[in-house]
Amino acid sequence: MTAPLLDVRDLTVTINRDGRLITALDKVSFSVDPGEVLGIVGESGAGKSITGAAIIDLLVPPLKRTGGTIALAGERLDQLAPKAMRRVRGDRIGFIFQDPMTSLNPVITIGRQLCDTIEAHLKISGDGAKKKALEWIERVGLPNPDVQFKRYPHQLSGGMRQRIVIALALCANPALVIADEPTTALDVSVQAHILQLMRDLHRESKTSMMLITHDLGVIAKMADRVAVLYAGRVAEISPVNELFNAPKHPYTHGLIRATPMPSVNGEVRLDQIPGAMPGLGAVPPGCAFNPRCFKAEGDCCSAVPPLTIRESVAFSCFHPLEKEIA
Amino acid sequence: MSGRDFLTLNHVSKVYRRNQSLLERLKKNNTGGTKAVSDVSLTVRHGETLGLVGESGCGKSTLARLVSGLMEPTSGEIAFRRDAAGKMPRLQMIFQDPYSSLNGRWMIEDIIAEPIRVHKLRRGRAAIRARVDELLVQVGLSPADAEKYPQEFSGGQRQRICIARALAGEPEFLILDEPTSALDVSVQAQILNLLRDLQKNLALTSLFITHNLSVVRIMADRIGVMYLGELVEEAPSEELFLRPRHPYTRLLIDAAPDMDTSDRTLHPIAGELPNPAFPPSGCRFHTRCPFAKDVCRSTTPPQKTSGADGMFRCHFDLDLSNGQAILPAAKARTA
Questions:
Q1: A242 to chain B: closest CA residue
Q2: Which of A58-67, A238-247, B12-21, B291-300 has the lowest mean pLDDT?
Q3: B217 with A262: Cβ contact below 8 A
Q4: Among residues 213-272 of chain B, which lie with CB inside 8 Å of chain A?
Q5: How many distinct structural domains can be found in chain B?
Q6: DSSP helix/strand/coil, A310
Q7: Could you tell me if residue B152 is inside a domain?
Q8: In sequence order, what are the residues at sequence separation of 6 or more whose Cβ sits closer than 8 angstroms to the Cβ of residue A38?
Q9: Pick from B157, B257, B260: CB nearest A218
Q10: Is the pLDDT of residue A3 over 90?
Q11: Neighboring chain A residues of B213 at a CB cutoff of 8 Å
Q12: Does B323 reside within a domain?
């Protein structure tokens, strides 16, 4: 067994709202192995994006990391000084944001933005950086790199912009890439292109990836292992096959059944989960999912189920589903 | 218009013009502008749900606005079935974003009561309030919610309020413009099930617009696929998924990632969506179509009928029922 590249233990993030502390992430633990794609899935408000931001210390106040450890290749990121953390960002951890419109500077050409990033992280300058930038524009599949180099973000389509954002995240050869909803703002036909590009680049570079998304279809195609978050806690972490074919946590099961998706025989089913995810600070006692769960019993309402590890899967549930109850 | 036809669109087009200079207006230069909807003809029958799918910029929301009368078509005509007195059917619309489509300063009671008052469907405070309570129960909320404000509700609950408001006008025709795309998966399933029940119980005729093919497959009886302002294919729901006739429909079905973890191949559509302001010549899909030949680049494809009541616009009669059939051609084009 290899040592994980990224090891997150008991990560806790709180919001200070007028002196009242509200837990946004509650003891989230997971790890990413070298070369692995870890999918992080959940509905809005589950804490997916906060997890990504907390790892590279980009939480916006009033969000604050209040506990837990984050280790990248054995080095404790949570203890680094802000200045040292700056060197980690972009250098060893790349970040792909959701909205390609707002994650590029609109008044600087994309060539300049690429060169700046390369110069800052790779210690090459001038012509060397430009050559590298042109290489990257070509690698992410944009035609005529020389022309694209001089263009501004508004002159590119959404899909092309997202390709540039991917180039920016990967150009410093990071050990880990965190992709936060990289295709959510894109159309279906463009989404498949971007996913294909990310998969190709991932295979070439052997970079580890954390893929944050709410789309189970994207998870099914891209992830090796999947962590399911619910109300700021880890509900289940499983290899992708197990997750879809034999989910352990009732929430995972419900989420899969609620996604409108034709099954193999062409039939379309749609099973809803009653209720809605509790808001911040309104998490019920015990298991956060208990008011919506069809398997909930007395113990679910009194104690928070711990993360139980069984072979390759981990789940936090007192009454896990045993086999697929199709 | 035959007996069952509820709404007919006859060669409807809508051109968005940019602001013209005085000189251009004097010269009566009418060439500029983006053709958002181009020569769309379709029929919605009584009691049926017609789904419209397409990617952004394909003109589906523009079409909804044209049908609702919020905009005038540039050319073509939109005709509703009129009753014996010659009155138009009542029409309501449900919008995508439940956060911006409810007035935060109004109580839920007033929001839902407004269409009742405007259309004078009930008289007297007590009768209106009773109707509001009934509607709230119908959409899965409680009468006690009538005294609250929109911001006290979650996204899914707000969308239920929007549905109650639409139903308050006792519509015969409902336009739903991406009603669940702003919602989470588990909540989306609730709203879709609610809409499905309401359609069944109230015998509503509706136009359901979405970019999500799985959603439209669940909701619609017939589906129209739009690409760059044109309706490229229209067919009964299951027929469209099992035997698509237009290459774009086939590629669109395959492009959305499903939850099958055993086959992890992705199926991107070659190329990018062209700028709708400058659509390609001939068949608008030829720049991305794996089957494109010379004729596609020069000639607009004719409208052909398929099955009992379907149509598609393609020069060729392709058998696209098997998703794999298109793959080698698509691969060759991407490479």
A1: B261
A2: B12-21
A3: yes
A4: 213-215, 217-218, 238, 241-242, 251-252, 255-262, 264, 266-269, 272
A5: 1
A6: strand
A7: yes
A8: A30, A32, A208, A209, A210, A211, A223, A224, A225, A226, A227
A9: B257
A10: no
A11: 188
A12: no
Out of A43, A196, A261, closest to residue B186 by CB: A43
| Beta-sheet strands, E only, within chain B | 5-16, 34-45, 49-53, 75-80, 91-94, 173-177, 205-210, 222-227, 230-236, 303-306, 310-313
Alpha-carbon distance of A320 to A301, in angstroms, equals 15
Instruction: Compute and round to an integer the Cα radius of gyration of chain B.
Output: 22
- Mean pLDDT lowest for which of A57-61, A129-133, A223-227, B83-87? B83-87
* Cβ–Cβ contact A271 with B under 8 A: yes
CA distance A43 to chain B (A): 6
CA angle B313, B318, B322 (to 5 degrees): 120
* Encoded tokens for A193: 């292109």
Residues of chain A with pLDDT > 90, as a percent, come to 33
Give, as one character, the DSSP assignment of residue B72.
-
Residues 80-119 of A with CB under 8 A from B: none
Q: What pLDDT shows up at residue A226?
A: 95
Integer Cα distance of B249 and B272 in angstroms? 16
Distance from B241 to chain A by nearest Cα, in Å? 9
pLDDT tens sequence across A304-315? 888 888 888 899
Q: Which of residues 277-296 of B touch A (CB under 8 A)?
A: 288
* Confidence at residue B331, expressed as pLDDT on a 0 to 100 scale: 52
CB contact at 8 A, B183 and B104:
no
Cα separation, B40 vs B279, whole angstroms: 16
Task: Please indicate whether, in this complex, the C-beta atoms of B156 and A217 are within 8 angstroms of each other.
Answer: no
β-pair type (B5-16, A37-41): unpaired
Residue B139 domain boundaries: 101-168
pLDDT at position A325 is 46
Nearest chain A residue to B190 by CA: give it. A272
pLDDT of res. B61: 86
Q: Is the peptide bond before A62 cis (omega within 30 degrees of 0)?
A: yes
- Reported ipTM: 0.81
d(CA A23, CA B45) in angstroms, rounded, equals: 52
A143 shares contact with chain B (CB less than 8 Å): no
What's the pLDDT score for residue B108?
94
CA of B94: how far to CAs of A231, B46, B113, B270, in Å?
29, 19, 16, 34
- State both tokens at B96: 């995508």
Look at residues B115, B72, B108, B113 and name the one whose alpha carbon lies nearest to residue B91. B115
Evaluate whether residue B129 is within a structural domain: yes
Which chain B residues are closer than 8 Å to A193 by Cβ?
268-269
CATH 3.40.50.300, chain A: domain bounds: 35-57+81-223
Question: How far is A303 from chain B, CA to nearest CA, in Å?
Answer: 25
Q: What pLDDT shows up at residue A268?
A: 60
Low-confidence residues in chain B, pLDDT < 70: 1-3, 20, 28-32, 323-335
Nearest to A241 among B261, B266, B268 (CB): B261
| Cα(B291)–Cα(B228) distance, integer angstroms | 18
Q: Which pLDDT does position A267 carry in this prediction?
A: 57
Average pLDDT over residues A206-214: 92
The answer as to whether B114 is a domain residue is yes
Which residue from A187, A220, A270 is facing B189, i.e. has the nearest CB? Answer: A270
Contact B333, B322 (CB under 8 A): no
CATH assignment of A35-57+81-223?
A: 3.40.50.300
Q: Which of B187, B141, B194 shows the shortest CA–CA distance to A276?
A: B187
Average pLDDT, chain A: 87
